[in-house]
């Protein structure tokens, strides 16, 4: 483990310890569904930390009105991304040759996790903000004034540096891996030239929002944007342990690509054939005499 990773893990342990008291609530590990609907009562103001910033800490679920989930082109006309020729070739390769990396327990990274339909948590301290994901992955973003490294090691989430602009948490990420990555659930690609700028806000107690600027001059002809809002979970909700690689019986039967993409930009099959009936009970075989 390198020194940077060691420091990151130590800081994350500190965040877990700081959040332990609020996490230990009866029923806290019981999910109330992966997505949620708008609250029926007016939202309270967003909480603030001792240093005056909006507190992003919480358990966050997708809004059921967000469609199509998983598609990074959600906000573009026809969901069409501005691919270069190399980007088009990379997409075709993913469609025909690449198994979804997340199904193989490979980290989805940014911005794919921002498009996911799964809940996540945020833990915030004065010097770090951690994003904890359903697959037991995490991001640890320093907000202590540091700059990007001169030669950062490529990673799935990139080298992430945060700072506050008023009530907005800005996360600037570079140095991404360019292999075994999809930028969303629909097999769209990104290269090692990816640059992501996220602007996170908490407009009130019940919502968290991100505006994402995505740049990748190798695979996209121009920058484009993705925005999303999540809803606060119930008090005490926390993420449970999820071991992706344990008993992953499907991985040897998966084919390349995301499967069919519906006209609404979502991923999945329509008009599924009914499943066959379950097998009946087996009768014990009498021992041979």
Can you tell me about this structure?
This protein is an alpha+beta fold and 289 residues long. It has one domain (3-242). The protein has 3 helices and 10 strands. It has helices at 3-23, 85-97, 112-115, and strands spanning 35-36, 58-63, 120-124, 128-133, 138-142, 159-165, 168-174, 195-204, 207-215, 224-232. Strands 1, 2, 3, 4, 5, 6, 7, 8, 9 and 10 form a 10-stranded mixed sheet that branches. The radius of gyration is 21 Å and the shape is globular. Residues 1-31 have low confidence and may be disordered.
Summarize the structure.
It contains three helices and ten strands. The chain is an alpha+beta fold and 289 residues long.
Question: How much helicity do the residues have?
Answer: 10-25%
User: Strand pairing plus helix content: what structural class?
Assistant: alpha+beta
How far is the N terminus from the C terminus? 61 Å
Q: In the residues, how many domains can be counted?
A: 1
* Percentage of residues in strands: 15-25%
